[in-house]
Each structure stands twice: as structure tokens, then as C-alpha cells.
Amino acid sequence: MSNTVDPAHDRAILDYFTKQASGFAAGPELHGRDVVQLIVDAAAPLPQDHAIDLACGPGSIVCALAETAAHATGLDATPAMLEEARALAARTGRTNVTWEQGSVYAVPHQDGAFAIVTCRFAFHHLTDPAAAFAEMLRLAAPNGRIVLCDGIASDDRRKAEAFNAMECWRDPSTVEFRTLGYLQHLFVAAGLGEPALARFQVPYLAKDLVAASFPKGGERSALLALLDGSVEGDPLGMSAQRTPEGVRLAFPSVVLSAAKPG
Predict the structure, then answer these.
(1) What's the CA gap between 170 and 216, in Å, rounded?
(2) How many CB atoms lie within 10 A of CB 242?
(3) 47-91: per-residue pLDDT in tens?
(4) What is the pLDDT of residue 2?
(5) How far apart, in Å, are the Cα atoms of 216 and each of 170, 174, 221?
(6) Phi-psi region of 57 (alpha: psi -120 to 50; beta: other; left: phi over 0)
(7) In this predicted structure, what is the pLDDT of residue 209?
């Protein structure tokens, strides 16, 4: 297993998500009920279940799972995100939740402690996704459900490279969006078989996406020009289209899920 510790990258994640914590938590694109429900449906929580969401961010998945599960835990590396999560739990009256600061590579719980293990929109920030997936597998009880969600890069190599270059500029904490095949292989290589899939899109107006971002060098105008110019030929694989409100584009995304063998 490769070394999962990269202090410089860890600092980039902490810096970026501290800056955007409140805006990120309020964004309906990732935290609207329809998007959250995709994870809940894949996890299929039962009243006796204990669940954990790794890289939980502002807690939307944890609070949604806790509506049915006996208890849900959220783990994140960024204190500002955990503050948003605690605020959400307070607003929604969720008392059967726990929040922990920590790394997705070394979760302080015993093997098989959870009936549900989820991780959403985090793997593209990770330098070692396979190690994080191994931790998800370790935490899952026999017959437990493992649910992974992330944006995906195009199978077209040139589009994938252009998309990742844009994303690493827009969000300096990004490492790489992987392809659907890469994420599927994590399940297969772990002995879980082919995962169930639910594809979806995370749409944005380009100007809103840029306004909510903290691009490297602070070059929002240049970033917006790049996104506005991506309509012709779809070089980023984001299905960009011109509309009366401005350029609309979307992050292709997927939920993958499987049960750990009993």
C-alpha cells in the first residue's frame, strides 16, 4: 500500500474547505434532498443500523441516514466543516449523531463496527483512494453496505486531462477525478463484485460555480472564461450549454454500492 500521508496536500484540503465551509454547506447542488436521497437509497438504512460517513463535510448525509438508522457518525478532517455539521444536526433535531475529526485513512473504530459505510464527493481529493476504500471495507460489518459517490472524469483521455487541469486550478485541493472504471475496480478488487450504479449530474451555472470557488492565483475571470469557452466541442466533458442565464454545465457523477460478504 502506498504512503497515504502528504502533509502539503493535507494543508491544502484544510485551507480550501475552511474557506468554503459555509458556502459549501448552503449549496443545493450537493446538499439538496434529491441528491442526498441517492446515498440514502443506496445505503438502505434500517432502524438497528449504525452508519458512518467518511469526509462528511457539513453533515447532510449523516443527518439523512440518522432519520432511520439507530446512530450515524460523521468524520471529517476540517473543523470548520464539522461546525457546519453540528449546526445542521441542531437545526434538524438530530441527537443520534456523533462528529469526529480525523483521517479517512485511519478511522478510530474497530473492524466491522458499522452496518453502513459511506463516502461522498471526497475521493477526487485523495492521494490514495485504494487505501481509503480499504478502510471503508474494514469498517463495514459482514453484510454491511458500502456506498461510494464521486464525480467522474470522461473515458476520453483528452477530456479527462482537460477537466482535471481545470478542477485542480478551480480547487487546489483536488488530486484527480477518476473514471467510472477506476471506481468500479475498487469494488471488484476488494472482492465485492460489480457494484450497483446510479448515475446523475450535478449542474451549475458557470458563473455561480466560479463565484463559490477559490481558484489558484485567485483568477476567477480567467476560470470563467475557460468554462464559458467549453461549449464548443465539450472539451471538459461537462455537457456545457449556453442558456439565457449563462453557460450551464454539469459534473458527471455516480453512486456505487455493494454489500460486504457475510
Answers:
(1) 6
(2) 12
(3) 999 999 999 999 999 999 999 999 999 999 999 999 999 999 999
(4) 43
(5) 6, 11, 12
(6) left
(7) 95
* pTM for this entry: 0.93
* Backbone φ and ψ of 51, nearest 5°: -125, 155
Amino acid at 65: L
Place of cell 470548520: 80
Rounded-to-integer distance, Cα 68 and Cα 47, Å: 5
74 in helix, strand or coil? strand
Instruction: Give the separation between CA 104 and CA 119, rounded to whole angstroms.
Output: 9
**Block residue for cell numbers 464525480:** 151
Hey, is 258 helix, strand or coil? strand
| Runs of H (alpha helix) within the chain | 7-19, 21-26, 28-31, 33-43, 60-66, 79-92, 129-139, 157-170, 180-189, 206-211, 220-228
d(CA 152, CA 176): 9
In the block, cell 442526498 appears at 36
User: What pairing do the DSSP bridges indicate for beta strands 196-205 and 246-259?
Assistant: antiparallel
HEC assignment per residue over 82-148? HHHHHHHHHHHCCCCEEEEECCCCCCCCCCCCEEEEEEECCHHHCCCHHHHHHHHHHHEEEEEEEEE
Which fold is adopted by the domain 7-153+174-203+252-259? Rossmann fold (3.40.50)
- Cα angle 79, 85, 89 (rounded to 5 degrees) comes to 145
The CA–CA distances, whole Å, from 191 to 30, 147, 260 equal 30, 15, 8
